[in-house]
Specification:
12 helices; alpha/beta; TIM Barrel; 289 residues; binds oxaloacetate ion; binds magnesium ion; 47% helix
């Protein structure tokens, strides 16, 4: 099955010799551009999913159905493997299992399940975590939800900046023991913390946003980091471009004089126009002009 190959490619990144940076993708066009530019992996963040689908902030308002549908659109458009941020799995451990089923069917190469308490609890401003034991149950349920064993399941925790390094290590070790394929960390503040986490665990590591001192790929590689995220600049760039374009049009600039638009060549590539032409010739018969 084609999805299996994508999952094997993600596995070979995790088991490979170096750390890579994924391209942030969020729709059919962005995944194709990332694929054409040679990215090995697409990252579909929960924050950009919320923005792309709802135009909302990253506060777990998006539903599993909406997330999975957006993933499906991307896997239909390109073969680039995608790692999906599945947040807390949209409920308790049983919901996590369902989340894995839906994202697997939608063509995700891998997904992360985190132990953050989501959505935000009543009367609590600070981010909270679910108990470690509940996190373990979620990881087990995620693994149980796979029907394709090549789908990559990652256990994620932001504990380092919420409850501290010791708790982050305890959680990472407990999740590792469930049989997840990789560990995903956010909130690691410095090299010493990463080194302690790396020394205490065995699985490949994926790093969410990291401070400047942790951007060198050879250093990260040496700490068993295999995927290092670098935010979601493409979505921000697209927002700015739409803003500038609408503003210019509103101010009376003529469409022909607009700056910064995709060339017809780039647009044609992004919509795989050549493939459509071939299919038209093959399936629509001789075409009169
Ligand atoms: O997955 C990522 O890139 C970081 C994250 O949690 C999000 O953007 O929602
Ligand atoms: Mg997220």
């Amino acid at each position: 099955m084609a999805f299996r190959q994508r999952r094997e490619r993600l596995r070979s990144i995790l088991n490979g010799p170096t750390c890579i940076r994924p391209g942030s993708v969020y729709d059919a066009t962005s995944i194709r551009i990332a694929e054409d530019l040679g990215f090995e992996l697409g990252m579909f963040g929960g924050s950009v999913a919320s923005l792309a689908v709802l135009g909302d902030p990253d506060i777990a308002l998006i539903t599993l159905t909406e997330l999975a549908e957006q993933m499906r659109r991307m896997s239909r458009a390109a073969a680039l493997p995608v790692l999906v941020d599945a947040d807390h799995g949209y409920g308790n451990a049983l919901n996590v299992r369902r989340t894995v089923q839906e994202l697997e069917a939608a063509g995700a190469a891998g997904l992360t399940i985190e132990d953050t308490l989501l959505p935000q609890a009543f009367g609590q401003a600070a981010t909270q975590l679910i108990p470690l034991e509940e996190g373990v149950g979620k990881m087990k349920a995620a693994l149980d939800g796979r029907s394709d064993s090549s789908l990559v399941v990652m256990g994620r925790t932001g504990a380092a900046s919420i409850t501290g390094l010791d708790d982050a290590i305890a959680r990472a070790r407990a999740y590792e023991a469930t049989g997840v394929d990789a560990l995903f960390f956010t909130g690691i503040k410095n090299r010493a913390e990463l080194e302690a986490i790396s020394a205490a665990t065995k699985l490949p590591i994926v790093l969410g946003g990291a401070p400047e001192e942790m951007t060198a790929l050879d250093y990260l590689t040496g700490q068993r980091v295999r995927i290092a995220l670098q935010g979601h600049a493409p979505f921000a760039a697209a927002t700015q471009a739409v803003y500038e374009t609408l503003k210019a049009l509103r101010e009376g600039v003529s469409p022909k004089s607009l700056k910064g638009l995709a060339s017809s060549e780039l647009t044609g590539r992004a919509m795989r126009e050549a493939d459509t032409k071939e299919r038209s010739a093959a399936f629509l018969g001789p075409q009169k002009s």
